[in-house]
Automatic annotation (TrEMBL):
Catalytic residues identified in the record: C95 (s-selanylcysteine intermediate)
InterPro entries recorded: AAA_SelU, Rhodanese-like_dom, Rhodanese-like_dom_sf, SelU
Protein's organism: Pseudomonas saudimassiliensis
Domain of life: Bacteria
Protein name per the record: tRNA 2-selenouridine synthase
Keywords for the protein's UniProt record, in alphabetical order: Selenium, Transferase
Catalyzed chemical reaction(s): 5-methylaminomethyl-S-(2E)-geranyl-thiouridine(34) in tRNA + selenophosphate + H(+) = 5-methylaminomethyl-2-(Se-phospho)selenouridine(34) in tRNA + (2E)-thiogeraniol; 5-methylaminomethyl-2-(Se-phospho)selenouridine(34) in tRNA + H2O = 5-methylaminomethyl-2-selenouridine(34) in tRNA + phosphate; 5-methylaminomethyl-2-thiouridine(34) in tRNA + selenophosphate + (2E)-geranyl diphosphate + H2O + H(+) = 5-methylaminomethyl-2-selenouridine(34) in tRNA + (2E)-thiogeraniol + phosphate + diphosphate; 5-methylaminomethyl-2-thiouridine(34) in tRNA + (2E)-geranyl diphosphate = 5-methylaminomethyl-S-(2E)-geranyl-thiouridine(34) in tRNA + diphosphate
Domain Rhodanese: 12-135
The protein's Enzyme Commission number: 2.9.1.3
Source species taxonomy: Bacteria, Pseudomonadati, Pseudomonadota, Gammaproteobacteria, Pseudomonadales
Quaternary structure annotation from Swiss-Prot or TrEMBL: Monomer.
């Protein structure tokens, strides 16, 4: 059998397949990208064993665990672990601390003829490693932030660079009142784990500095880790510029065309239900900023949006959406960002359009 491992860096960088044998409730609170949950105990079994441990001690708890997971149930779980091991001969298994549960799974697999290694320290040690990885990067790597008006394509800059971190991608949210997707955001722990793994990968490729989009503390429901956020508040800014027409086109693609497609994917056999969910997303997003828009601006944009949705429903044409998008940019987002730029003016080290900004940031990376 391959040796058990505590080389967390190699496990994450090589994207080694891993099987998490914690209970589903533990897995749901936080896990690592691509990991498969094949629990030793389900949530109720874990609860009963935990209660027994507190009341009667470890030996009684272990005995209860063997009683609960026995016979056909035990055979079914071993079969699931065997299937994972056969599909991923280079993989590992782990539990919360790398203790009793993962060792028991190893033992039962071995009795079934399968030798399979575990991660020493388990989920807790790997999670600690990722937190430390992120903290170390914040401490050691100079940051540049990409800022600019809504719709200038800041995410496109992040995607084009080798030393960037995609906060919005990991949070599965575009960071605005219209920023949610058709599928839910990750848990806070999953967001942090994904971000830390990207940090690990970027630094392993030789990056000495990092580029992020200028974000608030919250990206939807996900909170930017505190030390990273604090460092972002003093980092130099690169201001991305683009024309209003290009920005409207980009937002039309992101918030209308792509979002409608997401809802269609969620409801592939019911086009009407997909469109209703999409319309509810748009109208609800506008409603959330009603107070900040003011009653007159809100009413105007709401009417334009409803007309555009009706035209899209009738003919499939999305161009009428440009009306409310332009109004929203001109009357709401642009004044807000102009104010923010004024407050951050002294931190802006470069301003320009897409290619110029990418060129500047690549040069900055080379000199870091």
């Amino acid at each position: 059998m391959r040796d058990n491992s505590d080389d967390y860096r190699s496990l994450f960088l090589a994207k080694v397949p891993m099987m998490d044998v914690r209970a589903p409730v533990e897995f749901g609170k936080g896990a690592f990208p691509g990991v498969i949950n094949r629990p030793l105990m389900n949530d109720e079994e874990r609860r009963l064993v935990g209660t027994c441990y507190k009341e009667r001690g470890q030996e009684a708890a272990i005995a209860l665990g063997h009683k609960l997971v026995n016979g056909e149930l035990k055979a079914a779980r071993i079969a699931a672990w065997q299937a994972f091991a056969e599909a991923h001969p280079d993989g590992y298994l782990y539990c919360f601390r790398g203790g009793l549960r993962s060792q028991l799974v190893q033992q039962w697999l071995a009795e079934a003829g399968v030798e399979y290694p575990r991660v020493i320290g388990g989920y807790k040690a790997m999670r600690r490693f990722l937190i430390d990885t992120l903290d170390e990067a914040v401490r050691d790597c100079p940051l540049h932030l990409v800022a600019g008006l809504t719709g200038t394509g800041k995410t496109e800059i992040i995607t084009a660079l080798d030393n960037s971190l995609d906060l919005e991608g990991h949070a599965h949210h575009r960071g605005s009142s219209f920023g949610r997707h058709a599928t839910p955001q990750p848990t806070q722990i999953d967001f942090e784990n994904r971000l830390a793994i990207e940090v690990l990968q970027v630094r392993a490729q030789g990056a000495g500095s990092l580029v992020l989009e200028d974000e608030g503390r919250m990206v939807g429901s996900c909170s930017v880790p505190l030390e990273l956020y604090r460092t972002m508040q003093t980092a130099p800014l690169v201001w991305l510029e683009d024309s209003l027409d290009n920005r409207v086109t980009r937002i039309l693609g992101d918030y209308v065309i792509d979002m409608h497609a997401e809802f269609v994917t969620q409801h592939p056999h019911d086009a009407e239900l997909a469109f209703e969910a999409f319309a509810e997303y748009l109208l609800g997003s506008l409603l959330r900023i009603r107070k900040r828009l003011g009653p007159e601006h809100f009413q105007t944009l709401d009417e334009l949006m409803r007309q555009a949705l009706e035209e899209q429903r009738r003919s499939g044409d999305v161009q009428a959406h440009r009306g409310w998008i332009e109004g929203l940019l001109r009357d709401y987002y642009d004044p807000m960002y102009a104010y923010q730029r004024g407050a951050k003016e002294e931190r802006i080290v470069f301003a320009g359009e897409r290619d110029a900004v990418i060129g500047y940031l690549r040069e900055a990376a080379l000199s870091s």
